[in-house]
């Protein structure tokens, strides 16, 4: 069979396509349309060398663009031996975009360098996170699932020994994943099935069995359904209690942390116990129902940001990172999510750190709704063991 000139050209492009698919899959989706265009000879097949040259130039530009837009996030090693990117993308919002839109937002986050995603059974974003993982694999943004770090959380209607494994299985099913990187007990609290955390009726807060719930978390880890297990919103006292019987120590305690709630008691305690801290609401949940403007409108942060030509959010996030804590920051806006990544190649000075220590301290989210006169939690002091 005689191969014509145009067929030869198509074979060359198919060869390049396969090569890129194997060697540089991250740029494949950017340049796919060019393959079709160039394989059929846009210049009437007269100037094949020129066509190939232009095509190769486009490939190298696409590669440069991907590298330029992708920020590298440092990784930390957890006490479970697994690595975690030191900054995570929060996936909770007062009003979530529809699943497909949120999926595209999260894929874009991966394109610019986010690798760590924080969701929870109660956020309503598990499905979109799972779809974004599938999409990233499909388009070659990542080659393996293990390039991402996915966290989800046990909701408080299920914080009971017998309900943990079914809840994790449901989460995995919703996300279409075989395993999580991290599964957290969302709160040291249990409420009745169907109850609303923000509007709890008398009797809907139930006693929380800390040891039974943790034992079931350990079983999930042993089954390989999650690589690491951890806590969220646990005080020093509650962690101590949990450690009395734990056979696997929690890898993480995810708590509110920002310049206006610096976790001065919890941080040294967790460090001593080798439990890594992740900070939620690192910007004080600016503009959100549960948040405040204490971070984003702090005059101290404003002055530091101006003097360093950084944004307030960058100063707020950098400060958390310098405390050895991993911020979990939410932005679904392209510019702001890019901005929030640019915190790893500069530092705050000693003087700036001293100024940040002057910021008045107040827990933004106290979770008063769990407190009931006749329930198991009788005061916010009891919930936080005095650390408020
Ligand atoms: N474990 C827990 O109990 C718990 C509790 C709360 C939150 N979390 C996790 O932590 C994540 C983050 O916390 P959060 O959402 O409460 O608060 P946050 O990250 O402190 O603040 C999010 C708010 O700040 C805005 N924002 C983000 N970047 C910005 C920037 N560069 N400049 C100006 N505004 C900016 C966002 O709006 P745009 O999206 O419009 O940019 C959003 O309104 C959550 O998504 C969730 O995954 C966990």
UniProtKB/TrEMBL annotation:
GO MF term set: oxidoreductase activity, acting on the CH-OH group of donors, NAD or NADP as acceptor
An example Gene Ontology biological process: indole alkaloid biosynthetic process
Classification via CDD domains: AKR_AKR4A_4B
Cited InterPro entries: AKR, AKR4A/B, Aldo/ket_reductase_CS, NAD(P)_OxRdtase_dom_sf, NADP_OxRdtase_dom
PROSITE patterns xrefs: ALDOKETO_REDUCTASE_1 (PS00798), ALDOKETO_REDUCTASE_2 (PS00062), ALDOKETO_REDUCTASE_3 (PS00063)
Residues of the NADP-dependent oxidoreductase domain: 99-356
Entry keyword Kinase: no
Keywords from the named record: NADP
PANTHER family named among the record's database cross-references: ALDO/KETO REDUCTASE (PTHR11732)
Membership in a protein family: Belongs to the aldo/keto reductase family.
Subunit note: Monomer.
Protein's name according to its UniProt entry: OLC1v1013845C1
Organism of derivation: Oldenlandia corymbosa var. corymbosa
Lineage, highest ranks first: Eukaryota, Viridiplantae, Streptophyta, Embryophyta, Tracheophyta
